[in-house]
C-alpha cells in the first residue's frame, strides 16, 4: 500500500542557490512529519540512477519536489523517460524558505507510520551538466545540434534528441543561447532566465511559431527570431562560451 506523500529535495551541487539557504531548507524539512529524500542531485539521478526516482512513484501517491524551475524539472523527467505521476514542484530559486515550508505544512498529509529522512548521493563522477529540450517549444530547426561540437545531440528533420548528455561541457550553455524558440534549458545554469528554465513569455522572448500556419510564415518567423538573437549579441556570447569549452576540453586531453 502506498504512503500518502513524500518530499524530494534537490540539494543542487551547481550553486544556483546559496549554501546557507540549502542548509536551512534541509534542517526545516527534518521537522516535517513526512518522508524526506534529499537528493544530490535530481539532474544526476535523472541520467544515472533512474530507478531511485521511479521507486518514489511506486511507494507514494503524491510527491512534493523542492528544486528549481518547474518547467526544467518537468522536461528533465520527460527527456529521461522518468514517470513520477502525481507531483508538485516548489521552486527554491524564487520562493523563500518560509514560503516553501509553509506551503508544505499546509499541503502535506501526515503519514500514519514513522517518517524518515534519507540523504541520497549519486555515484556520477562528473557534473550533471546537460541540455534539456522543451518539446512544447522546439521547432526542429536543428540550430542547437549544428552549433554543438561535442556530439550531445542527434538530429534529423523529424526529431531532436539529447543522446550523449554527459558529453556536454560543464558551464557551457552556448547551444541554448542560439535557439530561436527558447526550447533549450540548462537547469544548472546559475542565471535566473528562460535558458535555466523560467517560463517564457517576456517581450524579449521569441514566441514559438504555431504549426497550423503556412510554411512560409513559419520560416519567416524563425528567420526573424534568429536575426533578433544576432542583433542582441547572443550569438557572439555563445561563440565565446563554445570556444572556452573547446579550450578546456583540449586541456583535459593534454593532462591524460
UniProtKB/TrEMBL annotation:
Residues 129-158, 159-189 form the 4Fe-4S ferredoxin-type domain. InterPro entries: 4Fe4S_Fe-S-bd, Fe-S_Ferredoxin. Transmembrane segments: none annotated. Keywords: 4Fe-4S, Iron, Iron-sulfur, Metal-binding. PROSITE patterns: 4FE4S_FER_2. It holds the Pfam family Fer4. One of its GO terms (molecular function) is metal ion binding. This is 4Fe-4S binding protein.
Amino acid at each position: 500500500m502506498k504512503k500518502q506523500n513524500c518530499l524530494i529535495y534537490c540539494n543542487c551541487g551547481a550553486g544556483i542557490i546559496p549554501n546557507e539557504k540549502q542548509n536551512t531548507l534541509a534542517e526545516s524539512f527534518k521537522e516535517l512529519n513526512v518522508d524526506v529524500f534529499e537528493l544530490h542531485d535530481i539532474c544526476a539521478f535523472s541520467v544515472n540512477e533512474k530507478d531511485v526516482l521511479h521507486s518514489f512513484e511506486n511507494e507514494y501517491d503524491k510527491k512534493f519536489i523542492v528544486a528549481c524551475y518547474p518547467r526544467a524539472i518537468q522536461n528533465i523527467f520527460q527527456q529521461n523517460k522518468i514517470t513520477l505521476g502525481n507531483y508538485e514542484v516548489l521552486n527554491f530559486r524564487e520562493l523563500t524558505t518560509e514560503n516553501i515550508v509553509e506551503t508544505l505544512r499546509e499541503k502535506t498529509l501526515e503519514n500514519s507510520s514513522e517518517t524518515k529522512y534519507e540523504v541520497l548521493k549519486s555515484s556520477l563522477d562528473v557534473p550533471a551538466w546537460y541540455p534539456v529540450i522543451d518539446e512544447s517549444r522546439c521547432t526542429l530547426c536543428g540550430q542547437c545540434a549544428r552549433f554543438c561540437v561535442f556530439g550531445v545531440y542527434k538530429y534529423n528533420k523529424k526529431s531532436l534528441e539529447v543522446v550523449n548528455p554527459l558529453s556536454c561541457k560543464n558551464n557551457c550553455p552556448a547551444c541554448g543561447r542560439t535557439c530561436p524558440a527558447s526550447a533549450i534549458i540548462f537547469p544548472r545554469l546559475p542565471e535566473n532566465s528562460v535558458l535555466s528554465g523560467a517560463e517564457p513569455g517576456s517581450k524579449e522572448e521569441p514566441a514559438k511559431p504555431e504549426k497550423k500556419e503556412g510554411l512560409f510564415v513559419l520560416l519567416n518567423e524563425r528567420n526573424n527570431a534568429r536575426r533578433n538573437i544576432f542583433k542582441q549579441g547572443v550569438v557572439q556570447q555563445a561563440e565565446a562560451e563554445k570556444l572556452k569549452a573547446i579550450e578546456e576540453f583540449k586541456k583535459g586531453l593534454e593532462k591524460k
